[in-house]
Specification:
Mean pLDDT: 86
Strand content: 15-25%
CATH class of the largest domain: Alpha Beta
Low-confidence stretches: 541-553
Structural class: alpha/beta
Distance between the termini: 56 Å
Largest sheet: 8 strands, parallel
Helix content: 40-55%
Strand order of the largest sheet: 9-6-10-5-11-12-4-13
């Protein structure tokens, strides 16, 4: 397995070399300035990179099983046959219970936490109930996404879940075809089962085709959705506004029984766009109540987001947002957050001896160990036995080495402090310094990565003690500029190169002439972009708009 830090630096080095080709200055001085600014020799110091940041992924607390919620009549019994995972996370269970009680719910959990299931399972359960009671067709749930890509991803999941169930669904976005004949792909016949759908998918893949398979439950075209509105409608905010504006589309909501109104990635609906969306929500609710007052009260309003929490105002900020967004009382809003399993640490812990100058060697061995685990090698136990004996003087039980390693690490003070510090992401230098302060001894990044690697290799009930993640953030050169001091000195005054105009702003110097820099991609001749009027240089702010005001100045001709 690769050393994540070294691998990041290798990729970063290649990226910086590529950035250097963006400005292939023939002028030796400018070229050397660009190399120094990019920091090609010390890639981690480049201003184009932030990181590396280290964090720990935590394991979500388990909740009730789907079978338990079925027994409590919270979910429809048939869901047990549809849902691939029998056990829910704790936050999923809490969200489902609140949604089924009709409470406005804001699900604010991290990426990959299963936010979609929080609202999708109650919606499908309700649709199954409507089917059992032979209720008339009509939209029951509207799920709004900020991007078509998210809606298309959800559409694929609905095909997998609802094929063969009789629950209709459709996606109404800008590229939705007008007629079913315009939709590329294969349409399964009415009455096709989920097994028929899976078989058709498998046959298509075996033939090397990338065609779309449509189950009979899917309303593929706008024409179909107008004639027979689906139970579950996926759309985006622009199309939802059009649906409520155009006569031919607004009929989708005639005699509707709208029970669920969901906005995914709710944090994207902010500012003026958020205010307009809030007005649209009120229009939709009012229209549905007018069309069918006996069956349309207030729909269950649900919003999801990974980043809507306010570190200063806490839960109150989320409740206030949902109240203003959906037009409900903030006191009725339920905010559902993440719930994590608690790690069990031994009360008596010891600080391991320093790895010293052997830290890099031990880290390579630990990464080799992880590689052996991935490939299910037979000599893994021998590798970890020798590694822990040499690095920490610990004799591991090779018959159950992963659990023995887990037990040892829970009594390791360095690993414990790592877990405590990394409750939030830390830069690697900050992490090193905080560990030094807490342990009272020196250590380097190789030693930290060594223990993180062992933590990810350990297991107790199939669960690792640590699940480390390393992040890095890279940006490109946004527009190089050069500056000259004011007033200009002698002819030939040396230009100072900057990677962006923002870098100049951060210096706080306002006594600089600033010119955007560019270069010829063929010969490397550099030019400074400036604006001229009446044969005078103009400040950028004073320059008229239009190409006629722009000039490329070759400093060699000045």
């Amino acid at each position: 397995m690769l050393n994540p830090v070294l691998y990041t630096e290798k990729v970063l080095s290649d990226f910086l070399k590529y950035q250097l080709t963006t400005y292939p200055f023939a002028d030796r001085d400018l070229y050397e300035q660009m190399r120094q600014l990019l920091s090609l020799e010390h890639t981690r110091n480049t201003p184009l990179f932030k990181g590396p940041y280290v964090s720990l992924s935590r394991i979500f607390q388990e909740g009730a099983t789907v079978a338990q919620l079925v027994q409590e009549n919270i979910l429809h019994t048939h869901l047990q046959n549809l849902i691939p995972y029998p056990t829910l996370y704790g936050h999923q269970e809490k969200a489902i219970r609140n949604i089924q009680q009709g409470k406005p719910t804001l699900v604010s959990t991290g990426t990959g936490s299963g936010k979609t299931e929080c609202f999708l399972y109650p919606i499908i359960s309700h649709c199954l109930d409507l089917k059992d009671h032979s209720e008339s067709e009509g939209i029951t749930a509207v799920i709004v996404y900020p991007m078509n890509a998210l809606a298309e991803d959800q559409l694929g999941r609905l095909r997998e879940l609802l094929a063969g169930t009789g629950i209709t669904f459709g996606m109404y976005v800008g590229k939705s075809p007008q007629k079913a004949a315009d939709a590329p792909g294969k349409r399964l016949a009415q009455g096709a089962s989920n097994q028929d759908y899976q078989t058709a998918i498998a046959k298509s893949r075996n033939k090397g085709k990338a065609e779309t398979i449509y189950p009979p439950e899917e309303r593929v075209s706008r024409e179909e959705m107008r004639a027979k509105p689906p139970r579950i409608l996926l759309t985006n905010i622009k199309q939802l506004e059009l649906l409520l504006t155009r006569q031919q589309d607004v009929e989708l909501f005639n005699n509707v029984q709208l029970q669920y109104l969901v906005f995914d990635e709710a944090h994207t609906f902010s500012g003026a766009a958020g205010a307009e969306t809030a007005c649209l929500i009120r229009r939709l609710k009012t229209f549905c109540q007018y069309q069918n007052p006996t069956k349309n009260g207030n729909p269950f309003c649900i919003a999801t987001s990974a980043t809507i929490a306010d570190p200063e105002k806490g839960k109150a900020a989320g409740a206030d947002f949902a109240a203003r967004f959906f037009g409900v009382d903030s006191k009725t809003v339920t905010l559902v957050g993440e719930e994590y399993q608690q790690d069990t640490w031994q009360t008596i812990r010891t600080i391991p001896p320093s790895l010293g100058e052997n830290a890099t060697t031990y880290l390579k061995s630990a990464l080799t160990l992880l590689d052996q685990i991935d490939h299910e090698a037979t000599n893994t136990a021998d590798t970890i036995k020798a590694l822990l004996r040499d690095a920490a003087g610990y004799q591991i039980d090779i018959n159950n080495w992963q659990e023995s390693l887990y037990h040892y690490l829970t009594a390791n003070e360095l690993v414990y402090q790592l877990a405590q510090i990394l409750t939030s992401p830390k830069s690697l230098p900050d992490l090193i310094q905080q560990l030094r302060d807490r342990l009272g001894r020196s250590l380097d990044e190789s030693e930290i990565l060594f223990w993180l690697s062992l933590g990810s290799a350990s297991r107790c009930q199939s669960r690792p003690l640590l699940r480390p993640v390393i992040h890095g953030f890279v940006r490109g050169v946004s527009g190089a500029v050069v500056t000259f001091p004011k007033p200009l000195g002698e002819v030939g005054e040396q230009a100072q190169l900057w990677l962006s105009s923002e870098d100049v702003d951060q210096t706080g110097q306002d006594t600089l002439y600033r010119l955007p820099a560019t270069s010829c991609s063929t010969c490397g001749q550099h030019y400074y972009v400036h604006h001229v009027g009446d044969f005078r240089f103009l400040n950028t702010d004073d320059a008229p708009r239009g190409d006629e005001s722009k000039a490329l100045v070759n400093p060699g001709n000045l």
